[in-house]
Amino acid sequence: MVARLKAKALRSQQRASNQEAYPSRTPSGFVAGQKRPHVVVPGSSVQPNQRDARQTPSGDKDGFSKPARDSGIEPAKKFQKFVEYDFSKMTDTKGGFLTAEDDPHNRALHTPNQEQKPANMTLKEWEKAQLIKKLKNERAGPYEPGLSALGAAKEQKKCRECDTLEIDWKWDDVFGCQVCKACQDKFPDKYSLLTKTEAREDYLLTDPELKDEQLLPRLEKPNPHKSTWNNMMLYLRYQVEEYAFSDKKWGSPEALDEEFEKRQGEAKRRKEVKFKSKLNDLKRRTRVDAYKRQKAGVEGGNFGDKLWGSKHEHEWGRAVENPETGATVKTCVECGMEVEELEF
């Protein structure tokens, strides 16, 4: 049995060697082609001065070749900036707009002045750094100036209303006003903040006065209506009233009320003068048109009649055949203009 299997293996090897020695032929007698597969073709054998479409490098203008893409299909030029959104991971705002987190590539949602998170910081570290920065600016929390009972009583700053030592240090830096948070809410008629528009319209202050920080200190905050607009300027009410009611400006609240009523009366008078001037101009133009019609001998007609000086529109009569030319002629009833018509 073993000898028979060995003999069978020897015959198979001999038959295979004979097939390699003699090329295979087609039924017509031609030698069949032995084409090598593409994977065995060496790519490094191509000379640099020869062209090979299989290894055409994607060259750049500077001569450097770009790395090969994962896929041979490239997007069209007009779709290269196309952004595909995954709607399953987006926030449903119920308003038809995208949030800044869902659309990070939108420049309209991300202002250029916005401070960005460094690449080497985690989100938690970045939030902590922002909180520390905010506390430093507001002088709150651990950055609030220390309250020591050992210091001199004259050197300690107290609230001007309740004499407490826990004052708002930001107001102290900006407005120079020592007042606590509780008194700010307790006395809104003195410590409420006014916008620039309110200070200009209610107390009749000018723009140069409002821009003078030594005269009227102001607190600047980002505009709540739109981040790209100018910062909002806030003024302390009692400081604005002290300047407006002083001898440098109006002198007293009664004088301010008189000036306000005076300006309101002047505005109303200017509005009435403007209205009367327009009405007189309309009457004058109406009289001129009536005089022109009267001078031209045009009497007043019935409703629907054409006025003198209006645009003329031809009113054609019946078509009459011209016996000399044989053409059909129409004549305007008012001006007598004639036109010929050709009938086919």
How would you describe this protein?
The protein has a three-stranded antiparallel sheet with strand order 1-3-2. Strands 4-5-6 form a three-stranded antiparallel sheet, with no helix packed on it. The chain is mostly helical and about 350 residues long. Strand 5 (about 330) and strand 6 form a beta hairpin. The protein is built from nine helices and six strands. The protein has helices at about 1-20, 125-140, 170-175, 180-185, 190, 195-200, 205-210, 235-245, 255-295; strands at about 195, 220, 230-235, 320, 330, 340. The chain starts with a helix and ends with a strand.
Q: Percent helix among the residues? A: 25-40%
CATH class of the domain at 156-251 reads Alpha Beta
Instruction: Briefly note the CATH topology name of the domain at 156-251.
Output: Nucleotide Excision Repair Protein XPA (XPA-MBD), B Chain A
Described by strand count, sense and barrel closure, the largest sheet is: 3 strands, antiparallel
The helix/strand order is: HHHHHEHHEEHHEEE
The total of helices stands at: 9
Strand elements, count: 6
Uncertain residue segments: none
What general form does the structure show? flat
Spatially, the strands of the biggest sheet line up as 1-3-2
Q: Which range does the strand content fall in?
A: 5-15%
Radius of gyration of CA atoms, rounded to a whole number: 47 Å
The averaged pLDDT comes out at 76
Distance between the termini: 113 Å
Q: Structural class from helices and strands?
A: mainly alpha
CATH architecture classification of the domain at 156-251? Alpha-Beta Complex
Domain XPA C-terminal: 190-240
GO cellular component, one term: nucleotide-excision repair factor 1 complex
Organism: Aureobasidium pullulans (Black yeast)
Biased composition (Polar residues): 11-27
